[in-house]
Design brief:
The chain has 436 residues and is mainly alpha-helical. Helices cover 55% and strands 4% of the residues. The protein contains 14 helices and seven strands. The strands form three sheets. A three-stranded antiparallel sheet has the order 5-6-7. Helix 2 runs antiparallel to helix 3, helix 2 packs parallel to helix 5 and helix 8 runs parallel beside helix 10.
């Protein structure tokens, strides 16, 4: 090779290395920003609600394991994965202990919203063990599935929010107990809501989006376009991610589970993903009404949930086209723009069932509940952080691996690692119960 060609090759190599260095620096800088804003928003809430056991007080008094708080703790668990501060766990366990690690439901009133909190209980089980953390959820779902007429109660999810509130918890129970009937019930319930809720489908396959419930099916905005509620679709999108993630944790996914559970959910996830990016705003947000400009403007909760699902799909290799990467980056920028200096989050639509409620959503507006908006934000931002970390070439998360997810290591039912196995004893390995 001539000296000139050597020189050109060397320059190309150096430019490539320099470019990689610039990309890594940019990714690390953005990671710092994601982590700092996530901490700031969470610190604001923990300052505002210093006692996690205190009732939630808005228009009336509610216990603190209401669904809004359950969604917050889902986000807090995401933050703990990238920022393992013990105060997050103390805050979570104090809250869960005050409710005896049980759902808000009773056998006389089983409701998906009341089961939402059990997701965090079981996430703590996967981290440290302790059968009490899932016992209340199991008793509640057992009553729903077997204590009454199953042919009726796999039709309990009459609104799409319920899919996020309850379906991931059923997937977690399947992972814990290895009892496939929990996922069978979850899929029966999901498919009924999807295909025949109240006389017709809530999922419009041709558009990749969902009506919120039977009463709002077919409703149009004043511009004549379909009323697809952003956060409602975000709930479903997040639920698909959380359920598939639990199935992934049971790796390898069995052929039966892939056919009956994973593949149908993945198909809907991909249909929704394409639809979601097509209706994203230029500023990275989504309108409260996804395909309409009737309520034109930023809204955080749907945006946070869409960020969560998009980035999870990118991390898993399900979403490979540049359009998804660009959508995720814009969604992060939108979420970041909502964070006040003190950590308060703007542009949050309060509790609702449709795009119009609470409109307009403003930067300084205070929603009726602040907790679930933060949960949606943290789910999205912490997943985005994980993706950035992987893109930067780093491996693993900041926090130590959850004990019950380490492959090939055995734990007792209290989450303690076992050095010597005893005949006939029950252990946890790879997040599942096994008998030696």
């Amino acid at each position: 090779m001539s000296p000139m060609k050597h020189c050109v090759s060397y320059l190309c190599l150096m430019m490539g290395l320099l470019l990689c260095g610039v990309i890594n620096v940019a990714a690390e800088s953005r990671m710092d920003s994601v982590l700092n804003l996530s901490r700031r928003a969470n610190d604001y809430f923990m300052r505002t609600v210093p006692d996690p056991t205190a009732n939630s007080v808005t228009d009336k008094v509610r216990p603190s394991h209401i669904w809004t708080r359950g969604v917050y703790y889902e986000g807090l668990m995401g933050l703990y994965e990238i920022d393992p501060q013990e105060r997050y766990i103390e805050y979570t366990d104090t809250w869960a202990d005050s409710h005896d690690w049980s759902p808000r439901s009773t056998i006389w009133r089983i409701h998906a919203d009341d089961q939402c909190c059990t997701q965090t209980y079981m996430m703590r089980y996967f981290q440290v063990g302790g059968a009490k953390k899932y016992a209340g959820a199991k008793a509640d779902f057992d009553s729903q599935i077997w204590g009454r007429d199953r042919s009726v109660h796999n039709r309990d999810w009459t609104w799409i929010d319920a899919i996020q509130m309850a379906m991931p918890a059923l997937a977690m129970l399947y992972r814990i107990t290895d009892d496939r009937r929990y996922m069978e019930f979850a899929m029966q319930s999901y498919l009924w809501t999807r295909n025949s809720c109240g006389g017709g489908p809530l999922f419009v396959e041709s558009e990749g989006l969902w009506w919120r419930d039977a009463a709002l099916r077919g409703v149009k905005e004043n511009d004549g376009k379909n009323s697809y509620w952003s956060r409602g679709n975000g709930w479903v999108y997040a639920a698909l991610v959380r359920v598939m993630d639990q199935l992934d944790m049971m790796s390898p996914v069995s052929e039966d589970d892939m056919r009956d559970f994973y593949a149908p959910l993945q198909r809907d996830f991909l249909l929704m993903s394409r639809a979601i990016v097509e209706c994203q705003r230029e500023d990275g947000f989504w309108n409260a009404s996804l395909v309409s400009t009737a309520y034109n403007g930023p809204e955080l909760t749907g945006t946070g949930l869409f960020l969560y699902g998009l980035v999870w799909g990118l991390r898993k290799g399900l979403l490979t086209e540049p359009i998804y990467r660009e959508a995720a980056d814009r969604a992060w920028s939108a979420c970041a723009s909502c964070v006040h200096e003190n950590g308060f989050l703007g542009y949050v639509q309060g509790t609702s069932d449709r795009p119009s409620k609470g409109w307009p959503f403003t930067y300084d507006g205070v929603p009726n509940f602040e907790d679930f908006g933060l949960g949606c934000f943290l789910l999205g931002t912490t997943e985005y952080y994980k993706w950035l970390k992987e893109q930067s070439g780093e491996t693993g998360l900041t926090s130590p691996p959850a004990p019950l997810q380490r492959r090939g290591e055995y734990y007792d039912l209290q989450g303690r690692r076992v050095q010597e196995l005893k005949e006939g004893e029950i252990y946890i390995v790879n997040g599942k119960k096994v008998t030696n």
